[in-house]
Design a protein that fits this description.
18-stranded antiparallel beta barrel; 16-stranded mixed beta sheet; mainly beta
């Protein structure tokens, strides 16, 4: 005999069967007081079928699917989306499906806890009592229909309070209820919603006794801001714990803390989002956007890696053999993750096991087993670091850095080549502290004569940063280019900056010890110490003229080198002097777009083949004018008015393999008035007319090479030249730069950050799988 349907056929026949399973407001407290399963078998309430064919339940215990429940007078918890007229008929009765498709203790490889077993059926006496109670409830319902208006108002008040309770909605083409085993079987376009969580599948079984559910076939699980799809899933509605087999999905790092929150928190009827998270009818990827880059390396590579700021990776997609989760975290086996929205990914992070657990309101702990990076599906590089602390969902910039150490060149302080390893220190709150031990390779091979124990061969760098308030932040850095403390005065460099926002302006308090500045033809100059304040304006647009104005003012007490004998002791021609320095500057600039072409479509084979954003061919002209006035307490005044003009552009689209991209710039800067009257060497204006220019050229495929140079036209002397070699891909990049004049260089690694909409394809999909990628 077939099991009775929860939604009995009644004219007019409903297109969709919906059942709302409601708990009372105090169900968590009552659950804690219930020692036996009999607590869940409560007398049924009244019943009424709504005009739209949906049945809504109220005044029932948690997940008690009473077809007798009365329809609330309030609006439905969630609106029913438009549906196709077709319906899905289950291939077998619910009881047979439960027995045949679900082996005891396991569903499609997902282990089931012992408490997932079906509860013992109630005895016949209890069933008779329930039936009697049901008849009584029907009579009560009939009597209530004839009550006066006051009674109706009172009932409405009770219903409103019930609506605020945590609710669960089950929707399917066909539902069957097995009263003896307390199992609901739903088949055909099944969706269950619990607060901000949802599970959609082809088939679902809900065990009302232990509040567990099992889903199979095209499973889509959504909780708060994260969505996972897989072949099978289990979920415990009371504990908020579950597992998904063969899962894949996307991880929003910025909202990851929501994944650990109670899906019922803050609302009794969900958050009002659309019900259907099954995306079969959507196209592949659409509206993919590059949101920035992460640059890791020695020095400051962000200025060379296309000049974009370090915004961090905000979104990843992943695949896993099994994903388990509960209120305390997420756990994954055989994890594969990537920042690349296309398949197969150019860059993959893999680990045997992963655990993500919250530590406090602002931090999460991420622990890996055997982590490694896979480049272009063949090159594997192990990652030595196993544990990370995510602050407010933000991965540290070097989280996926494949370079085991930073590699740099510093011919002035460290005698050339050196390597370093950055070690972040655990801190509470938003503060960030790191130290980087260094080994000075060139010094070890040179002046120390291979003495590995010489303290001068080892250095140290450190940094600390964090906020002091909503508008105030501080940053400090320290560099020790040798641990031979007897030479400490020549090894130590340090700086500190506190920044406070004043409306749209920034007020900086700055201190530096042995700061090193590059001043054109004069080369590197040391500022022994400097203490002062600086206020900076933002870029201000002047109406519709296209002109951009910015200005700044500063006051400092400076100790630096000078060659002015009147500021030094008698008989000394070069040395340190102390002066107050006051400076003001203002600049105007205007850019003109002379020509712009069309970018290629943002697909993995066209605009994004060798770049994280489509290349737009263009030609632009920039002009600028800047005036600077500096007064020193030695009664010196240095004035300058500098004009500049520059042409920059790029041609090609970086799609073909050979010479399909050229980026260039050339410009001239001329000091119109003023001269080199500063008593200090670090800010003296000595280069009156300067030519600057550079080019970056694709050689073959992802390999690019270029240079940037600055020349003093008055003397013909090359001020500085930087050589650049780059391996550029959509998801990542490597860059090496070296300046012979400055004797500095670094090796940097870039990871791109993307945002996208729509469905991604599995990692191992054929490269020919079509997709619809566009960059906004």
């Amino acid at each position: 005999m077939p099991l009775p349907l929860i939604v009995p056929p009644m004219p007019p026949a409903p297109e969709l069967a919906e059942v709302v399973l409601v708990s009372t407001a105090a169900w968590p407290d009552r659950l804690a007081e219930a020692p036996v399963a009999d607590f869940f078998y409560s007398p049924p309430a009244a019943t009424q079928l709504d005009s739209d064919g949906s049945i809504y339940l109220a005044e029932a215990e948690l997940l008690r699917p009473l077809a007798q429940a009365a329809t609330p007078a309030s609006e439905p918890f969630l609106e029913t989306p438009a549906r196709d007229s077709g319906s899905v008929t289950p291939e077998a009765e619910a009881g047979d499906a439960l027995e045949q498709n679900a082996p005891e203790g396991q569903v499609n490889g997902i282990d089931q806890p012992d408490d997932a077993a079906d509860p013992p059926p109630p005895d016949e006496d209890a069933a008779d009592e329930d039936a009697a109670d049901e008849d009584a409830a029907d009579e009560d319902s009939t009597d209530e229909d004839s009550t006066d208006e006051d009674s109706t108002d009172e009932d409405s008040t009770d219903e409103d309070s019930t609506d605020e309770a945590p609710s669960v909605l089950l929707r399917a083409d066909r539902q069957e209820f097995e009263p003896l085993r307390q199992i609901v079987t739903a088949t055909g376009d099944v969706l269950i919603q619990f607060g901000t969580g949802q599970i959609a599948a082809d088939r679902m079984w809900v065990n009302l006794a232990n509040r567990r559910l099992r889903a199979e076939g095209n499973v889509f699980f959504n909780r708060n801001n994260q969505t996972i799809e897989g072949t099978a899933a289990t979920y415990n509605l009371l504990q908020g714990a579950g597992a998904v087999a063969n899962g894949r999905g996307e991880l929003e790092l910025s909202t990851i803390e929501d994944d650990f929150s109670d899906p019922f928190a803050g609302s009794g009827r969900g958050d009002g989002r659309p019900l259907d998270y099954r995306l079969q009818n959507q196209a592949s990827i659409s509206q993919a956007t590059s949101t920035g880059r992460v640059a890791a390396g020695t020095g400051d590579p962000t200025t060379l890696l296309s000049g974009q700021s370090d915004q961090g990776v905000q979104r990843l997609r992943f695949e896993s053999a099994q994903i388990s989760f509960d209120a305390d975290g997420w756990y994954a086996e055989e994890l594969r993750a990537t920042n690349d929205p296309f398949s197969p990914p150019e860059l993959e992070f893999r680990a045997d096991d992963v655990r993500l657990t919250p530590l406090n309101e602002e931090e999460d702990e991420l622990v890996f087993s055997r982590p490694r990076l896979v480049f272009d599906q063949w090159l594997t590089i192990p990652i030595l670091r196993r544990r990370y602390i995510l602050k407010r969902g933000q991965l540290p910039p070097d989280a996926f850095n494949p370079l085991p150490t930073g590699i740099g060149i510093d011919g002035r302080d460290r005698d050339g080549l050196f390597i370093e390893g950055n070690i972040p220190l655990r801190t509470s709150g938003p503060w960030s502290i790191s130290v980087a031990p260094q080994f000075l390779v060139s010094r070890w091979l040179g002046s120390s004569e291979y003495n590995i124990g010489d303290p001068a061969n080892f250095g140290l760098a450190g940094s600390v940063s964090g906020p002091l308030g909503p508008r105030t932040s501080v940053t400090g850095t320290l560099s020790l280019s040798g641990l031979d403390l007897a030479n400490l005065n020549n090894r130590l460099r340090a700086s500190f900056r506190g920044q406070h926002r004043l409306g749209t302006h920034r007020l900086n308090l700055e201190y530096s010890y042995r700061d090193r500045l590059f001043n054109g033809s004069l080369g590197f100059q040391d500022v022994q110490s400097s203490l002062g304040v600086l206020i900076e304006s933002p870029n201000i647009s002047l109406g519709t003229t296209g002109l951009i104005l910015n200005y700044q003012a500063s006051g400092q007490y400076v100790t630096a080198n000078t060659d002015r004998t009147d500021l030094l002791s008698p008989g000394v021609g070069f040395g340190l002097t102390n002066l107050y320095r006051f400076q003001g500057s203002a600049g105007l600039s205007r850019n003109f777009l002379l020509w712009q072409g069309q970018a290629q479509p943002a697909t993995e084979t066209e605009g994004l083949r060798y770049s994280d954003q489509p290349v737009v061919p263009a030609l632009g002209l920039g002009v600028g004018l800047r005036g600077v006035v500096t007064y020193y307490t030695s009664s010196d005044l240095q004035e300058s008015l500098t004009g500049s003009i520059g042409l920059s552009g790029q041609v090609g689209r970086l799609q073909r393999n050979l010479f399909d991209y050229t980026q260039f710039n050339i410009g001239v800067t001329r000091n119109i008035i003023g001269g080199d009257t500063s008593p200090f060497l670090f800010d003296r204006t000595v280069d009156q007319t300067v030519l600057s220019g550079g080019i970056t050229q694709q050689i073959y495929g992802p390999f690019l090479a270029g240079f940037q140079t600055v020349i003093n036209l008055d003397t013909g002397r090359t001020i500085d030249t930087t050589l650049i070699f780059e391996y550029r891909r959509r998801a990542y990049g490597l860059l090496f730069s070296y300046s012979p004049q400055q004797e500095t260089g670094f090796l940097g690694f870039r990871i791109s950050s993307f945002d996208w909409g729509g469905r991604t394809t599995p990692f191992d999909s054929d490269p020919a799988t079509p997709s619809d990628v566009r960059v906004r």
